[in-house]
Each structure stands twice: as structure tokens, then as C-alpha cells.
């Protein structure tokens, strides 16, 4: 009986410790600022590639910018596992990170995943655990259970913020759940070649995206993609590996006549701004890549014929500042880092 009592006491202590740890992250989520789509956005921060095992110095910098919204662009944790209990624990570790707790209790958060929080490096539609992994991502992001994303496959979402004439639409694409297989390269320094017939988004997501753009009345339409859209030259993951999908997206942006479309991306462990000129679109299409929050390729020397900024090989996050006093609104896109550093900046006035 004495041994049984000691066993029960020890078990209770262990369970108590676990519960205490869980309470910390649950409390953080319960105190998280809800996403309020009536709010006018003037400052938006975003980023990607965040390891819980590395220092996370940029949250303090981000909080100092007083953003109205934080947008995750993927690799929000590094789970890389088919074990969903292990994935949940990794999300819990991030929720317990003290500076990130400050963020979510002060700033509304939305986002999408990339491969390492999907569960498998460079993963696509054949990942067996994609459905439960999707649910863990949405739980981590504290996505309202009443939103449509919970009742369909994949993690793609859209939010429209602000009143008429000061609207920002945030469209978050899922480039994992439906993506066809990558074509491996035999060329040195290239991981992948073109998949000429492959698709990135799947039919339902394409139809949804077309409707979101065509029906948008927002002055600024932000499309978040975990992987780069405009860059073509490097041999790693990018939309250009699926040329039909890339061209379809660019055509859809032009044909939809949505105002002020801009692309945000992550994944590459560098920061840069890329630009394309599209026929019938009276402003440059930018792709602002911000990666990573905790680690970068310090020796990066990556070719990109569309790059219009420096290549940033320091810890970085992205910042969007909107001047609604200007008509059309003037938007400044920046890649920023520690100690208030600004590594790249581009300002655009959108008009139709």
C-alpha cells in the first residue's frame, strides 16, 4: 500500500508539472488578441523560418513597430515529423516563448504554413498526416472555429480588414496540402527542375482564389505564399518549378483587376524584394521575401534576375506601412532587422 501511495503521489506531481506547462501556453492563447476585421491596418509585420531551439531576438523589434497585424508565412516552427504529439509539443514551445507571448497578447495574428510546420521537408500532397497537421496549425494560430477554413481541406484563408476606402485584404495560400510532386534535379547546386504539368494549389483553392480576387473591393490585396512567386533562377522550391501554376497566378492577378496586389513570401533564409511588370497592371508587382526570424544563410549568393533590392543575409522580418492620407494610398515595404536596421525598402502608390 505504501508503494502504491508513493507511486500515485509521484504520478500526481508529474501530471501537475505537465499541467502547469500546458496552462502557461493555454493562458497565452486565451489572452491572445482576437482578429478584428473592422480595424484599419496601417502597419503590418510578417516573417518566416522560426526555430524554437534558437534565440528569437526579433520579437522585441517587431513589438516596437506597434503593428496592427502579424502574418506568419511558414516554417513557424520546425516540426518535421509525422508524430502529431511531437508537432503539438513544438507549437507549445513556441507559445511559451516569452517574447512571442508578448506579441500574441498585443497583436492579432494570422498565417499559413510551409514544409517544416507541415511535417516534412519540401513536402506536398502525399504527406499522410496533412489533415491532423493542418488542424494543429490552425489551433496554434488561434483561428476562429466558425471560419470556413475549418470545414474544408487545406489551410488557405482570407481576411478583409478596415472600412470602405481603407480596406486591406490578406489572402493566405496553402502551397503544401494540394501540391504535386517536385522533379528532382541531377544538376549540381540545383535541387529541383520544372514540373511542366504539375499544380500547386488544387482546383478548389484555385476557384476560391479567383473569387477572392475578383470580388475584392480592397485598395490593397496582400497574397501570402510560403514560397517565392517571382524568383525564377535558384534551384530550390519556388512557384517557377510549376510554370503553369505560376503563369496562372500572374494571369489571375491581372485579369481580376484587384487593386494593389502584392506578394509576401518566406522559405529561403534570406530577405529580398523582387519585381515583375505585368501587362494591363498599372503598378509593379512586388514579392517581398522575409526569412528568417532565427537563422539565415549568411553566405548566401543567390541569383535572382527580378531582385530590385539588396540580398539580405541577416535575421529579418518584413514591415508594411500604409499612408491612407495619400490617394491612392502610398505603401512602403521594408525588410528590417535587429537594432532598427532597414535592409531594403520600396514604396508604391497603387492606382487603377
CATH superfamily: Alkaline phosphatase D (PhoD)
Helix content: 25-40%
Helix/strand class? alpha/beta
**Series of secondary-structure elements, N-terminal to C-terminal:** HEHEHHEHHEEEEHEHEEEEEE
Label the CATH architecture: 4-Layer Sandwich
pLDDT averaged over residues: 93
Name the assembly state.
Answer: single chain
Strand content: 15-25%
- Number of separate structural domains: 1
Low-confidence parts, pLDDT < 50 over ≥5 residues? 1-23
* Helix run count: 8
Short description:
With 352 residues, the protein is an alpha/beta fold. It has eight helices and 14 strands. Helices cover 27% and strands 20% of the residues.
What report would you give on this structure?
The chain is an alpha/beta fold. 27% of the residues lie in helices and 20% in strands. It has helices at 2-30, 58-64, 84-95, 98-104, 115-118, 130-140, 203-214, 243-256, and strands at residues 43-47, 69-72, 109-111, 157-161, 168-172, 183-184, 192-193, 220-225, 261-265, 272-276, 285-289, 317-323, 330-336, 342-349. α2 (58-64) packs parallel to α4 and α3 packs parallel to α6. The protein is globular, with a radius of gyration of 21 Å. It starts with a helix and ends with a strand.
List keywords for this structure.
20% strand; 27% helix; six-stranded mixed β-sheet; 352 residues; Purple Acid Phosphatase, chain A, domain 2; 8 helices
Task: Describe the SSE topology.
Blueprint: H1 2-30, E1 43-47, H2 58-64, E2 69-72, H3 84-95, H4 98-104, E3 109-111, H5 115-118, H6 130-140, E4 157-161, E5 168-172, E6 183-184, E7 192-193, H7 203-214, E8 220-225, H8 243-256, E9 261-265, E10 272-276, E11 285-289, E12 317-323, E13 330-336, E14 342-349
Parallel strand pairs: 1-2, 2-3, 5-8, 8-9, 9-11
Antiparallel strand pairs: 1-12, 4-5, 6-7, 10-11, 12-13, 13-14
Helix pairs in contact: 2-4, 3-6
Amino acid at each position: 500500500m505504501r508503494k502504491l501511495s508513493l507511486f500515485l503521489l509521484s504520478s500526481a506531481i508529474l501530471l501537475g508539472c505537465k499541467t502547469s506547462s500546458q496552462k502557461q501556453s493555454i493562458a497565452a492563447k486565451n489572452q491572445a488578441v482576437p482578429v478584428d476585421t473592422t480595424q484599419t491596418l496601417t502597419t503590418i509585420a510578417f516573417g518566416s523560418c522560426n526555430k524554437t531551439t534558437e534565440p528569437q531576438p526579433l520579437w522585441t523589434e517587431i513589438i516596437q513597430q506597434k503593428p496592427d497585424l502579424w502574418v506568419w508565412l511558414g516554417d513557424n516552427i520546425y516540426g518535421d515529423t509525422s508524430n502529431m504529439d511531437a508537432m503539438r509539443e513544438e507549437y507549445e514551445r513556441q507559445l511559451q516563448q516569452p517574447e512571442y507571448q508578448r506579441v500574441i497578447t498585443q497583436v492579432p495574428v494570422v498565417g499559413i504554413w510551409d514544409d517544416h510546420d507541415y511535417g516534412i521537408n519540401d513536402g506536398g500532397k502525399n504527406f499522410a498526416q496533412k489533415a491532423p497537421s493542418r488542424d494543429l496549425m490552425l489551433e496554434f494560430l488561434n483561428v476562429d472555429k466558425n471560419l470556413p477554413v475549418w470545414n474544408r481541406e487545406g489551410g488557405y484563408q482570407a481576411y478583409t480588414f478596415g472600412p470602405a476606402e481603407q480596406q486591406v485584404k490578406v489572402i493566405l495560400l496553402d502551397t503544401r496540402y494540394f501540391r504535386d510532386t517536385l522533379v528532382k534535379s541531377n544538376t549540381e547546386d540545383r535541387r529541383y527542375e520544372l514540373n511542366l504539368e504539375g499544380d500547386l494549389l488544387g482546383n478548389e483553392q484555385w476557384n476560391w482564389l479567383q473569387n477572392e480576387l475578383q470580388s475584392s473591393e480592397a485598395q490593397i490585396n496582400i497574397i501570402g505564399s510560403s514560397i517565392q512567386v517571382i524568383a525564377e533562377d535558384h534551384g530550390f522550391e519556388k512557384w517557377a518549378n510549376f510554370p503553369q501554376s505560376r503563369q496562372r497566378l500572374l494571369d489571375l492577378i491581372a485579369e481580376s483587376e484587384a487593386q494593389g496586389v502584392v506578394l509576401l513570401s518566406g522559405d529561403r533564409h534570406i530577405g529580398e524584394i523582387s519585381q515583375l511588370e505585368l501587362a494591363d497592371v498599372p503598378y509593379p508587382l512586388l514579392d517581398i521575401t522575409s526569412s528568417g526570424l532565427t537563422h539565415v544563410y549568411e553566405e548566401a549568393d543567390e541569383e535572382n534576375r527580378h531582385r530590385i533590392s539588396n540580398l539580405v543575409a541577416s535575421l529579418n522580418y518584413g514591415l508594411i506601412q500604409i499612408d491612407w492620407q495619400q490617394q491612392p494610398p502610398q505603401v512602403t515595404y521594408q525588410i528590417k532587422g535587429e537594432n532598427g536596421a532597414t535592409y531594403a525598402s520600396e514604396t508604391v502608390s497603387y492606382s487603377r
